[in-house]
Amino acid sequence: MKKKQTLIKNAHIVNEGTIFNGDILIEGEYIKEISDSISAKSSDVHVIDAEGKYLLPGAIDDQVHFREPGLTHKANIETESKAAIAGGITSFVEMPNTNPQTTTVEKLEEKFAIAAETSSANYSFMFGGTNDNLDEILKVDPKSVAGLKLFLGSSTGNMLVDNPEVLEKIFKSTNMVISVHCEDEATIKKNFQEHFDKYGDDIPVSCHPIIRSEDACYISSSKAIELAKKTGARLHVFHLSTGKETKLFSNKIPLKDKKITAEVCVHHLWFSDEDYEKKGTLIKWNPAVKTKEDRDQLWEALLDDRIDVIATDHAPHTIDEKKNVYTSAPSGGPLVQHALPAMLEMYHRGKISIEKVVEKMCHNPSILFEIEKRGYVKEGYFADLVLVDLNNPWTVNKDNILYKCGWSPFEGTTFKSRITHTFLNGSLVYQNAKFSKEKAAKRLTFNR
After folding, report:
1. The whole model's pTM is what?
2. Which residues are in the Amidohydrolase-related domain (predicted)?
3. CB atoms < 10 A from the CB of 186, how many?
4. Architecture of 5-55+380-395+412-435 per CATH?
């Protein structure tokens, strides 16, 4: 059977630190050819003129919470993966703190089965560590999952790993990438009690970064890094939120050789504590959005390669849940549809180059997690591609938000850049705000 072909012509192709004008021929699931000029060999070839548009690899989001199973009143894999595709994110790694939690191989495989049926984007999952599931961790095939997730603070259920002996055993026992949420629970509890004694349940949300403080983050991050150095574990620290933490990371060697890496999330690059007055609990995240100075230092570390990856920590809740008083309002918010447009907005503001956005959102997650044949515009790679019009403004509003929860912290924001086409494994799955019915998503595989 003849494989279908798509020819993208006249694109500004962004890949590996360069932008060049050219054409791309997709055959079946893969990029067959990249050249200055390619001619359609037959009338069967679907030709797309990308004149004036930028072609990027599909973004890879290494940290999302799609809430399935068990929390599907907030979100599910089907709704949130569609939002991701509309936002130019073609692959995601989902977290284990669902209900039930993904802390056994059986529960992990159940999640893969759900994604195989319903996901619009390529998918993998983190396996969750607890104080008492080392035996299950050792059963996990490192080639079949993205990695291991440990909550060293701010966990749900029983996922807080706070036994130092267990933690050291886990670090010594696995060669999977260990991704960690770092906030020191004792520090947070002390700070919270002080504020609760003063305000009761209705603590001003502006106190959130004081409760979940710089010290809470730094104490936990520095301990995790110390343990990784002691044990030789491969450590990835999720969602840095403080300038102080950035000093714990290095840019002295290439990412592929690093044993200790770091990520920053879109909200920590976009918002600061000055935004709590207007946005309230809508920007209540763990770790907290902190000061403008912290944000500036995160940007500095991102651009000088101490921070390796930009992710979302997409974690939706219903608007009713978020409208509760401080102690009852959950932390987290939806981001996958708006992360890439937000970072391209930062390009327009002169904060970051498009090449750097692609490095941090496409290339580096692929390198860090050793994802097979994704994250680049390369011949022989899967055709996960995104076409972007950098000068086609649109405003985020209720009518165009695709998250199941129906709201966004970016509501009312106008982005200059618009994702016009998303290709997944060679299929055009999204074009000008419309989704195709084609099922193209695949389970991610890893070169380990």
Report:
1. 0.98
2. 54-429
3. 12
4. Roll (2.30)
